[in-house]
Amino acid sequence: MTLSFFDQFMSPTYLGIPLIAVALTLPWILFPTPSARWLNNRLITLQGWFINRFTQQLLLPLNLGGHKWAALLTSLMLFLITLNMLGLLPYTFTPTTQLSLNMGLAVPLWLATVIIGMRNQPTAALGHLLPEGTPVPLIPVLIIIETISLFIRPALGVRLTANLTAGHQLIATAAFVLLPMMPTVAILTSIVLFLLTLLEIAVAMIQAYVFVLLLSLYLQENV
Amino acid sequence: ERDGRFPLGEKRLMDVKLGELGSWLGKRDFTPNGVLASIRNGHDRYYNKYINVKKGGIGGVAMLLVGYVALSYMWEYDHLSEYRLWEYDDLRVPTTYSIIHLKAL
Q: Which residue blocks in A62-151 are alpha helix, DSSP H?
């Protein structure tokens, strides 16, 4: 029985092509290349406005070395937010519910920030392990705790997976379990579903944002 | 100039007669480059007609998304056809939640 509740997260194959392949290439179509015109069409103008604002906000706390990461972080944000929002359409598949994808994004990027920090400024990078002003007896414990917290940072990917999976699962449970069970109070369940969908829209956007924000934070410390 | 003496592979689809469809398909370019070229062609035509216009509305993107939903439905049809809603009006429901009634495979 447990398998039937998680079935929505399996990517079905049709003519040998898994749906996840289609779902992953769709964001590519939705962001057209701006042409060399003075005024582009409305879609590109809106997207360009959003990208500019987002990149400006993101790069405020980073010093000049971190600005090299602008393209990567912005494209990551666009990718994640598009994937999450597209997953809210009926019958679609959300690739970010797969842990493999999220860890594949989180671990290399986190490791890159650590290695850059260790390579360029090893003293400062190691210095982050001990906050200023700690009482002397606490130092050994705190170093252990900070090291553990450094290594647990790839949980960035787990966070994204868990949030999206939980949201989709709630909606699926409400739809398949609650709705058929209690037809007399179906209107309440419909309201619950509607609210859950609104929540999911918010979560989709927030999660993408948090992912990128935390990554930029890790970068900020290390660059 | 729309007489029937064109070389077959170069006619547009609308000009091909029904009986010639098989040989027309055979002459089209199915190499990877050809497939990519036709995808790019189709994308450019859709884009320039519906999105890259002076006052494009939400329709251009919305059609694309609806098409994507339909495509996903088609992809998942085998899997979705196994789900049945609760069929019984019986109030004496067993306490284990045997809600989703899977068809025998």
A: 70-86, 99-120, 122-127, 139-151
